[in-house]
Amino acid sequence: MLLYSILLTLASFGANIDKQSKTIKKTETGIQMKQERFQKILDILAKNDYASVESLSRELFVSMPTIRRDLNTMQDMGLVVRSHGGVVRRRSETEGGPAFFRMGINPGEKLRLDKAAAAFLHDGCMVFLDESTTTLHLIDQMARFKNITVVTNSLSVLQLAAKYRIPSICLGGDTSYETMSFYGSDAEEMVKRFGIDIMFFSSSALTAGGWIADYSARSTSLRRHVLTQADKKVFLCDKSKFLRPGAYMLMPLSEADHIIVNAPLPQGIDTGNAEITVI
After folding, report:
1. Which helix (H) or strand (E) holds 2?
2. How many Å apart are CA 225 and CA 188, to the nearest integer?
3. Burial (CB count within 10 angstroms: exposed 0-12, middle 13-18, buried 19+), residue 220
4. pTM, to two decimals
């Protein structure tokens, strides 16, 4: 009887080992398949920049919920940027990359754009600066003016403003540690309290259709609210952003009051009545 019990125990133990082994193999296979999907998605985006969930589902022969989970994971890993209904390729110099990294991209061109934008500053004005590193060093140009107040959602702007003791107002809200900025309904409600004389802003893309666009829904939403408060809208854009796709449309370029670029704009883009400065 004892021997029979031992044999049963051994048989059960062996079955459990076999079951666990199969589970491990299944898990390893699942991980491998997921990694292969990730690579295929990156390969597709390398060719097309944008892909919809539906098209990826068809091409990779998996369900749309699976694709959505994959894209969310890939975004958390910093590989892609999710957009409405799909995904876009992440370009390291924009698309929500860490602020300290973006500051090192084309610093000379950004400084030239900022110096040109400083022509619109004057004593006693209230200006808005977003979290774009393109507009950041406008702060350096403000030191020679009197009684300028800066409204911003960017901690980087606040830190630089502190260097010159420039009066500043920070829009609070949900924190993004990548851009070191604040977004969300609190920031959007707070900006309604201010009359902005000049809104200086940039973006991740200027589309072929002439739209100012971005890859961040939160940033785009906040900018839309600032636009309604601003008397003058000054858009700064370097040529690397020309004719690029964007996930979230902010406004037609033609609605800007002033456009500052470091190269002539592509033919066919409507600029309306905006004044254009090419540096």
Report:
1. helix 2-48
2. 6
3. buried
4. 0.67
**pLDDT tens digit sequence for 17-68:** 565 555 545 555 667 788 889 889 988 987 887 888 999 999 999 999 999 9
Kindly state the tokens that stand for 222.
């906040």
CA 23 – CA 27 distance, rounded (Å): 6
Q: Hey, what amino acid is at 168?
A: S
- Distance, in Å, from the CA atom of 50 to the CA atom of 44, rounded to the nearest integer, reads 8
Round to whole Å and give the CA distance between 140 and 164: 8
Question: Is the pLDDT reported for residue 131 higher than 80?
Answer: yes
**Tens of pLDDT along 150-189?**
999 999 999 999 999 999 999 999 988 778 899 999 999 9
Instruction: Tell me how far apart the alpha carbons of residues 224 and 203 are, in angstroms, rounded to a whole number.
Output: 12
Torsion of Cα atoms, 181 then 151 then 106 then 163, to 10°: -100
Rg for the chain (alpha carbons), in Å?
25
Alpha-carbon separation of residue 117 from 41, 125, 223 (angstroms): 40, 14, 18
CB 13 within 8 A of CB 5: no
Q: Tokens for 111?
A: 């400084």
> Residue 223: which H helix or E strand, with range?
helix 217-229
pLDDT, greater one: 220 or 47: 220
Could you count the other beta carbons within 10 Å of the beta carbon of residue 181? Answer: 27
CA–CA separation, 270 and 127 (whole Å) = 26
For 224, other C-beta atoms within 10 Å of its C-beta total 14
Dist CA 61 CA 233 (whole Å): 46
